[in-house]
Amino acid sequence: MNRSRRRWPLALALALVLALPACQRPEDPLRPADLVPRPQLVAALVELHLLEARVENAAMKPDSARALFLAQQKSIFWSNQLTDSSFQHSVRYYGTHGKDLDDIYGAVIDSLEHRTHRLDPKRPPTPPRPY
Q1: pLDDT (tens place) for every residue of the chain, 131 residues total
Q2: Which of 54, 82, 115, 120 could form a disulfide with 77 if both were Cys (CB 3.0 to 4.6 A apart)?
Q3: Structural domain boundaries of the chain?
């Protein structure tokens, strides 16, 4: 009986050691076949964030606002030659590479700030954000 008590923690430790690698995220996830290039993704994200701001500022019921956003989102995807799945796959892929997504959103922020400054030249530019 004493011997079986000693084997139980050893068996549990062995099971954990064997199971841990399965829980870890792979170092380099597979690149999706429909990966959207960064400049194309940046352009789509800028348009989507502008759309989101317009919809949020519209005096609409939440259901109507959501329906409008989804319809306009399809239009943005079509104009940027994207599919919903290619957009989702690309954001997920770039999201697993933190530096890539930081660079992409840095470009999105710069583009949105440039548009803001172009609309209101008297407004001082926003100081750069530390990345």
Answers
A1: 455 455 556 565 556 556 655 555 556 678 889 999 999 999 999 999 999 999 999 889 999 999 999 999 999 999 999 999 999 999 999 988 878 888 999 999 999 999 888 887 776 666 665 55
A2: 82
A3: 33-119
